């Protein structure tokens, strides 16, 4: 069974206290009571409470002092104020001290119950966001690199390879779909290497024509061509002693491939229009979203250059294969854009998180980052909801379909649904429970009831 939220109600009027206790217990809540602020504070320190309802005027410690103490020691715990002495000034003071809402006696139980449900939900989401933030910081400390975030097995394996090869001179080929973060892998390799304080030069090969790329990589002598009014050092020279990152290496033409092969083999080259041979000590990292082996078979890429580049191969997984990292990435992006845009959005609603988890993310981490930025700008509330996300994510979050061969019993249908959801969640039962809208203990109990093996 999923534990119901626990309320703490503090009021010195016994009739109100007992009436509220009965009303909320009838709705399924667990209710603790206190007759004054001191008793409420002592109870709060001994129990796990999800929300506090308190009167303001009580003997001993009053409601004002209780609210201040809760705001100081339990900042995410929501407090609702009840009072028979309601004035605008009283309401403003209570809200300023930390109360989330204010009701005058006699209270409308239906309205109070609605605020209680919403407040507990918001508090739970805020706590979940806090835990995600703590997990992000823990992962960053463990990994020793702050810009790659993930707890999935594929990311852990990738980070292990990065650290292993970082302090070598081996050429590294980083492959992966567009938007997966290949440049961050190159950054991580450099940060873990002994060349971290040496030049780190980046060239985006696809952005330059073949003529410009050759000039950019190797430089030129004065008078080498029209417009060459002075000598220019190329990126290889500028990276001497450090690292050169060649992004989209699959886009370079045949002539540049030959010259690049020579540099990798002999560590020397000549500037365009020059005769002097220049020797360099450069560690090369390349990246591409193309299948270079297939390009070799088509005759578009030199086989000898391919093997020279592919000494160490690091494949960056697409986001759809590391969905357990979506919450962490989205939370980190939320913090970034909150700071940049001056917003105070606390997190994502379950509906928004479900939509993000169900979407296939063809644009990978880059698309997720753009989606969060858009949602931060457009959101009108304190939480990002499903409707705040870009249309393609809302509409493309249908996920897999489950079909049944009728007739089928309700138990058989539920068992199939649980199995399919666990499969859809990549075996992650916590995530499957979340998608089904039930607690982890509930899904474990149902798995036991239906004799579903953990490895099934």
In short:
This protein is α/β, with parallel strands linked by helices.
Question: What can you see in these coordinates?
Answer:
The chain has 456 residues and is of the alpha/beta class. It is 49% helix and 14% strand. Strand 11 and strand 12 (277-279) form a beta hairpin. Helix 5 crosses helix 13 (326-341). The two termini are 23 Å apart.
CATH third-level topology of the largest domain: Rossmann fold
N→C terminal distance: 23 Å
Counted up, domains total 4
Strand order of the largest sheet: 2-1-3-4-5
Topology:
Blueprint (H helix, E strand, L loop, with lengths): L5 E5 L3 H13 L3 E5 L2 H10 L4 E5 L7 H11 L5 E5 L4 H10 L3 E4 L4 H35 L9 H14 L5 E4 L6 H11 L7 E5 L5 H9 E2 L11 E2 L1 H4 L4 E5 L6 H13 L1 E3 L6 E3 L3 E6 L3 H7 L4 H7 L2 E4 L10 H16 L5 E2 L1 H9 L5 H15 L4 E2 L6 H5 L14 H15 L4 H8 L3 H10 L7
Parallel strand pairs: 1-2, 1-3, 3-4, 4-5, 6-13, 6-14, 7-10, 10-13, 15-16
Antiparallel strand pairs: 8-9, 11-12
Helix pairs in contact: 2-3, 5-13, 6-7, 10-12, 13-15, 17-18, 18-19
């Amino acid at each position: 069974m999923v534990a119901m939220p626990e309320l703490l109600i503090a009021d010195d009027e016994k009739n109100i206290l007992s009436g509220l206790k009965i009303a909320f217990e009838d709705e399924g809540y667990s209710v603790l009571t206190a007759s004054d602020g001191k008793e409420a504070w002592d109870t709060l320190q001994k129990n796990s409470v999800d929300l506090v309802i308190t009167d303001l005027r009580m003997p001993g410690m009053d409601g004002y002092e209780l609210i201040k103490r809760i705001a100081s020691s339990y900042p995410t715990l929501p407090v609702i104020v009840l009072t028979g002495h309601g004035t605008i000034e009283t309401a403003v003071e209570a809200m300023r001290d930390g109360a989330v809402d204010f009701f005058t006696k006699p209270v409308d139980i239906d309205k109070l119950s609605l605020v209680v449900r919403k407040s507990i939900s918001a508090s739970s989401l805020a706590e979940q966001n806090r835990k995600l933030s703590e997990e992000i910081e823990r992962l960053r400390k463990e990994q020793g690199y702050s810009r790659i975030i993930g707890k999935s097995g594929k990311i852990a394996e990738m980070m292990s390879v990065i650290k292993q090869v970082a302090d070598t001179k081996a050429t590294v080929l980083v492959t992966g779909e567009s938007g997966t973060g290949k440049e961050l892998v190159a950054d991580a390799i450099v940060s873990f290497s002994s060349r971290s304080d040496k030049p780190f030069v980046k060239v985006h090969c696809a952005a330059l024509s073949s003529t410009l790329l050759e000039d950019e990589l190797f430089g030129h002598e004065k008078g080498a061509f029209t417009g060459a009014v002075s000598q220019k050092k190329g990126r290889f020279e500028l990276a001497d002693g450090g690292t050169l990152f060649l992004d989209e290496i699959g886009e370079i033409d045949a002539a540049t491939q030959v010259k690049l092969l020579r540099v990798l083999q002999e560590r020397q080259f000549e500037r365009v229009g020059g005769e002097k041979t220049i020797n360099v000590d450069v560690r090369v990292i390349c990246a591409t979203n193309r299948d270079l082996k297939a390009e070799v078979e088509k005759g578009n890429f030199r086989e000898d250059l391919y093997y020279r580049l592919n000494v160490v191969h690091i494949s960056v997984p697409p986001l759809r294969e590391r969905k357990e990292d979506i919450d962490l990435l989205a939370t980190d992006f939320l913090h970034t854009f909150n700071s940049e845009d001056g917003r105070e959005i606390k997190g994502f609603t379950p509906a928004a998180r479900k939509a993000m988890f169900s979407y296939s993310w063809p644009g990978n981490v880059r698309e997720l980052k753009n989606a969060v930025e858009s949602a931060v700008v457009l959101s009108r509330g304190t939480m990002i909801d499903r409707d705040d996300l870009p249309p393609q994510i809302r509409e493309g979050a249908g996920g897999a379909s489950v079909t049944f061969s009728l007739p089928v019993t309700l138990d058989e249908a539920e068992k199939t649904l649980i199995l399919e959801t666990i499969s859809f969640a990549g075996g992650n039962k916590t995530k499957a429970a979340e998608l089904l809208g039930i607690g982890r203990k509930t899904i474990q109990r149902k798995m036991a009831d239906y004799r579903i093996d953990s490895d099934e």
